[in-house]
Fold this protein.
Amino acid sequence: MGLLSLGTPLPWEQAKELAHEVRQHGIEQFLHIWRNTKNRQKDRLLWGDEIEYMLISLDRKNRRARLSQRGHELLNTLQIEENEMLNLANQTGENPDLEALWRPEFGRYMIEGTPGHPYNSSVFDLTTVEANMKRRREIVASLMREDEMILSIGSYPQLGSGDFLEPPHKANGQFSRSLFLPDEVINPHPRFRTLAGNIRERRGSKVRINMPVFHDLNTPQPFIDPSIPYDRSLFPGDKEAKEGAALPDHIYMDAMGFGMGCCCLQITLQAPNVDQARRLYDQLATVGAVMMSLSASSPIFRGYLADVDCRWNVIAAAVDDRTAEERGERPLAKDRFAIPKSRYGTIDTFLGSDDGLFKPEYNDLKLVYDHEIYRHLVNNDIDELLAKHIAHLFIRDPLVIFEELLDQDDSVSADHFENIQSTNWQNVRFKPPPPNSPIGWRVEFRPLEVQLTEFENAAFSVFTVLLARALLAFPDINLYIPVTKMDINMQRAHNRDAVINERFYFRRSSPADVENTVAELTANEIINGSAEFIGLVPIVQMYLDSINVDENVRRQIERYILFVRGRANGSIMTAAAWIRIFVRNHPEYKFDSVVSSEINYDLAVVLDDIANGRRPAPELLGAGNTV
């Protein structure tokens, strides 16, 4: 989760007075990075993945599965060996031989794992990804108690519902002030609680998250959630639910933890140079929604079946720090801008590159950006498209400022830049090199939902990397669509069974009508091809055909490609669909949308069995694919 620094975080009343200063220094830091690295060439096509896990405690006697706060304890243990090896490497000058790296996430029950080193640019390295992911799971499992498990799932079904936390705590924390979540679910790193509190304080109210409930046979109509403590008066914001924040026929949530307490799969790719990074950023942004629909794994929130399959909108609402003025609910008076979206969403502007494919009409959104910052960037030789991108990011305030990090040398630090950059959570992220680092220009692909098994996570990771390399190898491939169409696609991708039922705006391969380059295609048509579009899988296979690939390597990669094909054509179901079917077929389910503690327990156990290969699931993984 973005920049993690240590120090004394400032409360919002102090932090907001320093926002302008942080933005100014952040821009100067970016300019230093740009001048020093804009001409970098021939960086290797390194890449890496991030998988987030949830630690769960099982009470088998009473059939309860609870999120375990020991996740933070395990993380500390995992990082001891990592830090010892890094310190030794610094002394000897040798590269540390690390199998994995471990990082904190928002939830105290969460652990993020990445490979110990970036994967290199060889195709063979793609065949090592699944084994490395399995090894990460084994490393965490070696530290677990007998009554614990780790799951890589998008959303925990009972987060914020009933008896969901081990050990239990009451929802009365000062940072979130949630009706449902205690502050104890938050990682104790000072950044995370401050982030939750400052989002609420900056906004002027608690966040408002409403996901449509899945109306089953016995679900009340309208559905008015009986579990909301409407009459609680512990904090001033408690009245918000009763005053309209909680919508009928929706699952209401009221804290950052509901979004940032979800898990994901993210992939970061290094490009040879800044221009190729810009091409990757633009082209991969257009495929984000359809890839999210293929990876959908989040159909339950706060103990209710939802009528959505993904977590993206939950997170977007969970970090929406915009004030009433910025949301357009009041005329601008104190604030600088009316801002159409949360700081978590699809990109709002393309960057363009030297491939010659970008056209101004693709940036069809009326972009909100800081004109003063834009002029300063342009005056310092930043091109118009990149200057608007950065000036758009910098309409936001820094949410967490550490007192000890205020005074920095802008020529060697990027902390102020990353403070803003890392809290603009978009479907792709354009990442400049860190100062004085061998790391190059990168793009982070962010819309994928995490999968239950290493096979699935490896399949989506490898496919994304191969698609990225094909986009670089074949510079005439053009996936541009208007930016506003991507927003529509992302909303459609949330819908229940979107992968088989929805259509997404996508660019035709060779449109007969040059004025009508965009069509509405199914996920199957986009992934596997049709008369309108060649297909992402055929593009990947063209790339593999163009390079020298060992037969055994190609065979293993084809397993992943066939899996992606199957998800797109509906022959392999998504985790969201599988979970929904499991709940609806459970003998204790009353067809009222309620996922009880007992159902949740049985679901957790069976998901763990699938993840560890104890239960075959060909409907989820594809025929012949095992864990």
Remarks:
- The mean pLDDT is 95.
- The CA atoms of residues 208 and 414 lie 32 Å apart.
